[in-house]
Each structure stands twice: as C-alpha cells, then as structure tokens.
Amino acid sequence: MHKPRSIAFPRHVAIIMDGNGRWARRRGLPRVFGHRRGADVVTMVTATAARIGLKYLTLYSFSIENWKRPREEVETLMNLYAEYLIRERATMMRNNVRLVQCGRRDGLPPRVLEELDRSIAESAGNDGLTLALALNYGSRMEITDAVKAIARDVAAGRLSPDEITEQTISENLYTPEVPDPDLLIRTSGERRLSNFLLWQISYSEIHVTDVTWPEFTRRHFFNALRDYARRDRRFGNVPTPVRT
Description:
Blueprint: E1 12-16, H1 20-26, H2 31-52, E2 56-63, H3 71-94, E3 98-102, H4 110-123, E4 130-137, H5 139-155, H6 166-171, E5 183-186, E6 205-208, H7 218-230
Parallel strand pairs: 1-2, 1-5, 2-4, 3-4, 5-6
Helix pairs in contact: 1-2, 2-3, 3-4
C-alpha cells in the first residue's frame, strides 16, 4: 500500500500583476479605473494569503520601466500607492502582516516614502505574512546593485573574491530576509518575466492565467495553488521511490 502523498503548499508566492490598462480599455474606461480596481484585488489577495497561512507574498506593483509611462498616469499611480498604504495600514495590523519594500527608494515621491516608511515601521513586529511590495523595482538593477555592494566589500578588504558564493549574492539583494519564491503567478496571459526576480525564481514553478489582474479572484488564486500542488519539484534530482 502506497503512503498518501502530502499536499504541497508554497511558502512564498510572487505575482506579476498585469492587465490593469487592458481591463479598463476593454470597458471604454480610462486606465486609472483599472489601477483602482487592481488595488482592490491586492487587498483581497493579501488578506487571503494571510488567512491561509502563506508566509511570503511578493507583488510586482511598479517597475523601473513604468517611469516611461505618461506623467499623468505615473502621478496617479503614486497617489494610489500612498492612498493604499494609508487605507490598508490598520488591516495589515489586524491580519498580522509585515510590509517590506523590494526596490530602490530613489525617485519615489516624498509622500509615498513617508507612508511606506510608516507602514514598514508599524508592521515590523508582525510575524504572520510578509508582504514584499516590489515598488520602483527592476531585477537587473537589483543584481547590479548587489554586485556593486560586493565589489565595495572586496575593494575594502572585507571580502576575498574566492569567498563569493551564490549566498553572498542573495544576501546583497533588496530583501535578503525573504526566501526565493516557490510559485510565480502571472496574469493577463503574458508569458515573459518582465525583469522580475530573475535571480530568485531560478527554481520557481510558473502559473500563467489569461485573466487580467482586475479580474483575478480568490478562485483564480486557489487554482494557482492547486496547480502548484500537482507539480513534481525535483530541483534536478530524480524522483525518490515511495516505499510501501
């Protein structure tokens, strides 16, 4: 008789939240309506992740490439971030959620930084879900910044080149306390990584759904988790025979 297979549950889920603009355009609405609806979905997914016991959730909310968008849209997005942080602060505390930022601070408006720092400080003692907000983020930039930090340590004599390992690089990324994602979800049907967590997702399972982010529901989230549970994650090894 075979032993029952335990259901795999990810420790860390990362999401590329794509399709806000397309959702709005299909409805003849300005893009800002898509972003506002997308912010509501962030609230839902975060609360759901906290309730089911997920330990880490990373959301790709604003990339460094997004600064190229029209100025009015960027300003709207920054206002939405500040509003979200203010509105959700009490909810984060009730749900035992700890907030961290994954990205550069340079270039973010003072109001966003103020609200971001307040939420990070107030939630620092929470030990439930860690929500990593990838804000002003780009993976190549993150890796470049890590290499620069390591180079400075080598130049200062604090580190020998022969001592540099994969762990050294991981420890110099933006959120070294956050483990690599087990599952990467991308909405809106696109099948590319978009400069997101390129180092960290080396062994992540990938789930793509055709629904846009504003259409993403708990059912879609649970479907992704069920898809993950069906995967056989071997990390290059051969399957271990099940003893009877």
